[in-house]
Design brief:
This protein has 574 residues and is α+β, with helices and mostly antiparallel strands. The chain has 4 domains: 141 residues, ibrinogen binding protein from staphylococcus aureus domain (ibrinogen binding protein from staphylococcus aureus fold, Roll), CATH 2.30.310.10; 110 residues, no CATH class; 134 residues, no CATH class; 109 residues, no CATH class. The chain contains 13 helices and 22 strands. The strands form 6 sheets. Strands 15-16-18-17-19-22 form a 6-stranded antiparallel sheet. Strands 5-6-7-8-9 form a 5-stranded antiparallel sheet, with helices on one face. A hairpin with a 5-residue loop joins strand 10 and strand 11. Helix 4 packs across helix 5.
Length: 574
């Protein structure tokens, strides 16, 4: 994991300098496994985030302000009772173990001063946040924890109120600041069938997988060798790392490649055109940026999956409704048959008797006057059977025009759902939230009140420069599509959209764009449409003044004329 023991030691160093003597002002628990302490110093108020999330366990200062639940959780109330107003005395870490202890001077229930400790254990799925207080013998007693561990969950260590606090088992790894080359070689030899990174992580305390990767890269260069084969160079690199930590010369950074999750490291990875590197002056700032990006990525994935599931469910139901309506329309197309049956029965009443199950009559409408067999209801008279068919004919004839209107509405609903589907597949988090709000207004999902979200600025359309240096804008959802086409674009700007396929509106900010810009924008229109995986796709383009929104049309829906069509195959690598 990115949050290794050395990272925790860096965080501790920085927090010790900033927060020494700070007073706990507020405590919040925005998530089930995360708390935020507001700590006031003479200089400022800092927010300390402590998380026991199995995937995102960490401790660092943050500038993010997550939404807090209306009703505080039980652990949050416990922390408020014991730590509100408390002074931070010390921050402790046993060597490079991933356990950080915040020692506070607080008061007990009798008003006497007492030391209380908030212990943050960053250990993957075993991460926890524990509040302790020493008893009369000085043994730390657990007051509460964000996760409870009972005897059924662990035979070695109980984490429950009233139990004595026992630290996690020691890892017995080499000390980064005092190991010898011989000790490192012996530790590396003990690793069986492990990767080079795993071997180094298992041998040396405080080293995580990402940090091990950079150390091995520096030690081995371009050669792929096992750590035991480069003990000397590994020793040199590890001692450089220890010295950089002591001298405060580490370079925390966040790296990102297109289409990949961000990465954090105390040592910068090798530079490459595909990698975007962002350096930070403090480890706390780097961690805050890294985890904010990581949380946003995961939240984007979660929101996208949820919205896509809802949209796909509605598409399935709408398609089923469309099939039923089309089947009903086919039945209505047979209305003329019932009129003929009624007329044939009326013309042959003198040949028919009550109780007959069918009538065999001559069809005067057929070219060869062939025999026509008409089913009858034996409970009705021949004349009543004729009237029944006339009534059925009139009902189908009159109902057809209403069914055609319903069919048109259903097809429009399906087209609208397809636009939501295409937008949700490529939208970023802010655009996804806007899609969610649009779906709530359309009655597709339940509306949720989110004060934080409503106060957030609207998401912005995508912006590209064509090969000719002309601005090209693309809507990421229906709100942006309406904004671009109806409010942002000038009447003489050019508007593009894939023909008869749901997709984004594309605006070229130019009254007479060259052919290369048109081709470029048309390729983007296909890329951000349902036809993204197709070839030779027709794209219509016209000036914005020829695009209009019908009264009562759904978001993103427009009509246009005076258009031309260009055929393109999208460039998926752009």
């Amino acid at each position: 994991m990115a949050y290794d023991g050395l990272t925790m030691a860096c965080v501790r160093q920085e927090l010790q300098q900033i927060l020494s003597g700070a007073r706990v002002e507020k405590i919040y628990q925005p998530g089930s496994q995360e708390i935020i302490l507001h700590l006031r110093t003479p200089a400022a108020v800092y927010m300390l985030l402590c998380s026991a999330d199995p995937r995102l366990a960490r401790v660092h200062l943050t500038t993010e302000k997550p939404e807090n639940p209306a009703v505080p959780a039980a652990f949050c109330m416990l922390l408020r009772k014991h730590l509100t107003g408390a002074r931070l005395l010390d921050i402790e870490q046993d060597q490079l173990e991933r356990v950080l202890t915040f020692v506070f001077r607080s008061y007990d229930e009798f008003g006497s001063q007492a030391k209380k400790s908030l212990i943050c254990e960053v250990m993957g799925k075993h991460s926890n946040i524990i509040l302790t207080m020493p008893d009369e013998q000085g043994t730390a007693q657990i007051l509460g924890s964000i996760k409870t561990v009972d005897a059924a969950m662990s035979r070695f260590r109980l984490v429950m109120p009233g139990e004595p606090y026992l630290p996690p088992p020691a890892q017995n790894k080499l000390d980064l600041f005092s190991f010898t080359e011989e000790e490192l070689a012996a530790a590396l030899l003990q690793a069986d069938n492990k990767t080079a990174e795993q071997t180094l992580v298992q041998a040396v305390a405080g080293i995580g997988r990402e940090l091990a990767r950079e150390i091995i890269r520096s030690a081995a260069g371009t050669e792929a060798v096992q750590p035991i084969a480069m003990v000397r160079s590994l020793t040199v690199e590890l001692r450089k790392l220890a010295a950089a930590f002591k001298e405060g010369k580490l370079k925390p950074c966040v790296s990102r490649k297109a289409g990949q999750m961000p990465s954090y490291s105390l040592l910068p990875p090798p530079a490459s055109p595909q990698t975007e590197l962002t350096f930070f002056t403090t480890v706390n700032e780097a961690l805050d940026a890294y985890y904010a990006a990581l949380v946003a990525e995961q939240q984007t994935k979660t929101v996208r999956q949820r919205l896509l599931q809802v949209i796909n469910n509605h598409i399935s139901r709408t398609k089923k409704k469309l099939r039923l309506q089309q089947k009903e329309l086919q039945e209505m197309d047979a209305a003329e048959r019932y009129r003929i049956w009624g007329e044939m029965l009326t013309a042959n009443l003198h040949l028919l008797r009550n109780g007959m199950q069918e009538a065999r009559v001559t069809n005067y409408y057929a070219e060869n006057n062939e025999e026509l067999i008409i089913p009858l209801n034996p409970a009705l008279s021949p004349q009543a059977n004729a009237q029944r068919y006339f009534k059925k004919y009139r009902k189908l004839r009159d109902g057809k025009k209403y069914l055609l209107q319903r069919l048109k509405t259903t097809q429009s609903e399906l087209t609208y759902l397809d636009t939501l589907l295409v937008a949700a597949q490529t939208a970023d988090l802010s655009a996804l939230f806007e899609i969610e709000e649009e779906m709530a207004k359309a009655g597709l999902i339940r509306s949720k009140t989110r004060q934080k979200r409503s106060a957030a600025p609207p998401s912005q359309p995508l912006h590209f420069l064509s090969p000719d240096g002309i601005d090209v804008f693309i809507g990421k959802n229906n709100r942006q599509n309406d904004f671009l086409t109806l409010r942002f674009a000038a009447p003489t700007d050019f508007w593009l959209h894939v023909k008869d396929v749901p997709g984004s509106h594309v605006i070229i900010r130019h009254a007479d764009p060259p052919a290369s810009t048109l081709l470029f924008a048309a390729g983007l229109a296909v890329r951000y449409s349902k036809a993204a995986d197709s070839a030779n796709v027709p794209v219509d383009y016209t000036q914005v003044k020829h695009v209009r929104k019908p009264r009562g049309a759904k978001p993103g829906m427009v009509i246009y004329d005076h258009h031309h069509t260009i055929y393109v195959t999208p460039d998926t690598e752009r």
